[in-house]
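ERR on first pass: missing label on line 2. Operator R.T. fixed the label and resubmitted. Corrected input:
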Amino acid sequence: MAILLAIAACGIAFGQENSDCFACHEDASLTTERRGKAVSLYIDQAIFSKSVHADLSCVTCHSDLEGKEMPHEVPVAPVQCGTCHTSEEDLHKESLHGKAVARGDALAPNCQSCHGSHAIVPVRSRESVVAPVKIPFVCGRCHQEGTRVQREREIPQSRILENYSESIHAEGLLKKGLVVSANCASCHTPHLILPHTDPRSSIARANIANTCTACHTQIEEVHRKIIKGELWEKQEHVLPACVDCHQPHKARKVFYDQGMADKDCLRCHERASIRASDDGRSLTVKADPLTHSMHQKVSCSQCHAGVNASRHRPCETIVQKVDCASCHAEVGQQFQRSMHGRLIANNDPNAPTCKECHGTHEVKGRTDPKSPIFAINIPVLCGKCHQEGKKAAVRYTGSEHEIISHYTESIHGKGLLKSGLTVTATCSDCHPAHNVLPMSDPASSVNPQNVPATCGKCHHGIQEQFVTSIHSTMVNKTDKELPVCNDCHTAHTIRRTDIEGFKLDIMTKCGRCHEKIANTYFDTYHGKVSQLGYTKTAKCYDCHGAHDILPISDPRSHLSHDNVVSTCQKCHPGANRRFAGYLTHATHHDPDKYPFLFWTFWGMTGLLIGTFVIGGVHTLLWLPRAMQLRRARQKKLQADNEEPKKQDE
Amino acid sequence: MNSPETERQVVRFTRLERVLHIIMIVSFISLALTGMTLKFSYTGWANVLSRILGGYESAGYIHRIAAVFMFGIFVTHLYNLLTKKRKEAGSLRALLLGPDTMLPTKNDLQEFIASMKWFLNLGPRPQYGRWTYWEKFDYFAVFWGVFVIGSTGLMLWFPEIFTLLMPGWFINVATIIHSDEALLAVGFIFTVHFFNTHLRPEKFPMDLVIFTGRVPLEEFKEERPKEYEELKNSGELENLMAEPYPDIVLRAVKVFAWTALSLGFLLVVMIIYAMVFAYR
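pass 2 clean. output:
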């Protein structure tokens, strides 16, 4: 009996043999529900026993179940392959894929996406799902036309799998079974996949030669057809990188007899007469603006991708428009999510592409005064569409109008255009150039939630005050709408706060929410003076503060018990504690709140009415008698005048 | 009819009294115009008027200077009363209880009742004396006004000092009393007082006695028969007779009087507009 108990106890304590797990998981009908879908939990013991992890117990990977009673609870924590495969995990974390996983991108691949789970066999095994021959299909699951990744994420290359399958590398790998022929991972590396714009990337322009020469070790010895073995060293920047001629994914077994250096393109495109065959537009490219542009070190074929150097006209294979995002990937991805990008995705003819703002061959940096995106030029640039009557303004349905002319008159516009202050906020400082979103979008820089941070980019000191004030969403948990910068300062007509207009306007601004308190303010001396159009009197912010408004109960408030006297003293140097008891928002219309004022007012009104009634009645009764007297006197005067006349006669 | 130049006139007001009244007109109208801009700041006319007066600060200075003059008039008048006491009446008792007293008397009540009867056609016109009851009312209204408006005005002028003695909300109360009592004063002076003393049909268009100080003997007989009889009997009348002012003086007086009258009426119209059409 005791022995039996001991065995049972052991069974509980060390009950996590794989067999215990399989007791349930070998049931082919075992399922669970994830995101509303039934997912099989069946694990084929035969397959697992052949896997590279066959010697490990289940809880080695499913470590969260260690010591737990069976059957365990769901959900089970994700398996951390990195516990053992540390270096691979580190690389993955750094990669495009890893970053996407970290952002919570549902399409991002993790270990299992490529390697599978319970059936993993050694990579070198032909059975492996990541064996060289299978790699293009593993990657192609996401990276081929029509997949969500290709449609919804910024992938600069198109038809990747299709092009690869026709390339010389795929011919070797897939048709000839040459496992040393380059597959996806050979160039992109298996785990540290980075965009070519990242200088660490295996396919970055500076690294691409190294990546190719990993296989094509002796290429420089034999590859002299175009480069003649000297310009590589002498003028590296004018020379194309491997991929400029041998298009990635499309590398063919051909001899290139045409060069693709810029001068080869300009041979035709410098001619003034060159025109497109379809619509007759000029295709002339002047070498000069290009050499003074930001892209002076970029060759034509880098932007006009898709050239085929084996053709007499290498450009005739170009099918795609220039895609700036192939280099400016991050910006491209932002732009795609922006209002402008969304319009383009909907084929809206009004939507601006990169070149509408940046130009084409003459593209200049934003610090170049000649650039259309130089600070001073931005209002004009945006105005091309957003000026009243122009194409963006006519389709706009919001409340902001005359944006450009208002901006020009605003403090920012004056700073920029009149004072030439290039650090002044222009359009793109508030509406980030590539991330323009409508106000209603929670991610928008001008969404009320984000406005303080947007303005705070420059007005940081104010933002610091504001976020601790009662108007900040960080402090005030009301369900009412709280004001942000533009509610008081407006968006495009921002004025200096020390001018009369702003000072007088603030009462109506505050009054939009604080209606009662603003009305009663106008019943007091301060309010009456300001109503006459004078600013040298206490306005809302003079007492309450502007950005650091706090409830009076807060000891930091300008109107707290400890601070109120010194606040009054700003204007009334002789103010004392009792002076501060003046009711600055008093009304004589509220008998409950201000009974003294109410009764004083009605007492005075009674006196007034009483006096006028008595005086008025007295006067009105008098009037007819007085008229009588007047008539009598006139008669007498007439009589007096007539008498002497008679005597004269 | 005798021409005004040759007509003999009875002197009713001394030079000092007339000067004080002129200063009071200027002071009162200044106070009213500047004060009402603030009271009715929500109207368009108040805004325009405030600009004309040079802004609220300048209006404020005008208001305070005019107030100082008003206090000055008040003090001068009291001082003048004391002088009178010494020179004419001899004692305070004689001054206050003599026949020409400004204090309300039993006779005033009788005259008031008689006046009511006369108004209602139930009796003859009373034989009014030196001061009628409505003149005494106006006279004490000024005392009351100077006290009420003046004291609250000082509180509003020097709130820092007054709040050393009283709570801050007293200033709010003072504001209401000051402004409503002022409204009463302005309204009363520019309507009832104007009618009673300057605009009565029998005097229409204007009684200049407060400026010239003299009234034609004929009118005096008619208006204040009792006083006339007394003066005639005591032989004082001859001492009070004077020549009328020359035309040029009368014309200047009329220009001034009409200006004051127009400003007063204008203000009444504006107040009525503000209270009826724009009240808040």
